[in-house]
């Protein structure tokens, strides 16, 4: 398949990169960190959607290598940012299969010198569908390294609530469909989101709303008590060079 060729080619020719999207604090709108999002271009420089190349990379067994690269790249970048800005890296379920994940995270932390508290790892609910015990053991090992763990895209999976009690995630990232729901059924959206925030609180998790695109959405989410916000309203994913510009740091 074309996308598989682009992945193999992309690895050989360094066509993968990371973009960074700001994650802001609800109480004052200040940036507390960035989520790293993987990007790939084809030979002509045209971007290939992560929605396409991530699953393909999982299929062909390339995600371990790419995931390890992303961990190294993102931690190396974040180590240059002002403290205490954090970086979040997405992990694929596949990275929990071969047993090399913990070593890979440790190696990225060691190589970059980044304090573990400044690294956040995002996993989706699908992680907890099979091999729960094995996965949980690895999540414990990751926590023991001092990194924090976020449940991503919360509310889209099959398992949402049934697995929440099983493991102490530090953060819950509300899927952006909840934010979209504001524009359709504001009252029901409000009730649903505030119940999830209350649940998160009770389970000692911070709650991030994703996909915030408008000021009125941001205000409503702050009112409801979200801890952090992320979305195009605050900033789209951008290359590191641009991020430095936006944040006005010296290179
Ligand atoms: O980047 P985009 O904004 O289009 O992301 C699309 C999807 O790809 C999201 O579900 C995101 O979690 C996933 N994704 C982006 N970067 C990475 C990555 O580095 N590793 C993994 N496993 N998934 C990623
Ligand atoms: O699954 P995950 O949450 O890791 O994926 C993040 C994806 O969401 C990325 O593809 C990113 O480009 C996209 N994204 C980030 N902010 C917004 C937003 O405000 N609106 C929309 N529609 N997508 C967003
Ligand atoms: Mn994510
Ligand atoms: Na998400």
UniProtKB/TrEMBL annotation:
Residues 1-251 form the EAL domain. The keyword Transmembrane helix applies. Keywords: Membrane, Transmembrane, Transmembrane helix. The keyword Transmembrane applies. This is Diguanylate cyclase (GGDEF) domain-containing protein. It comes from Albimonas donghaensis.
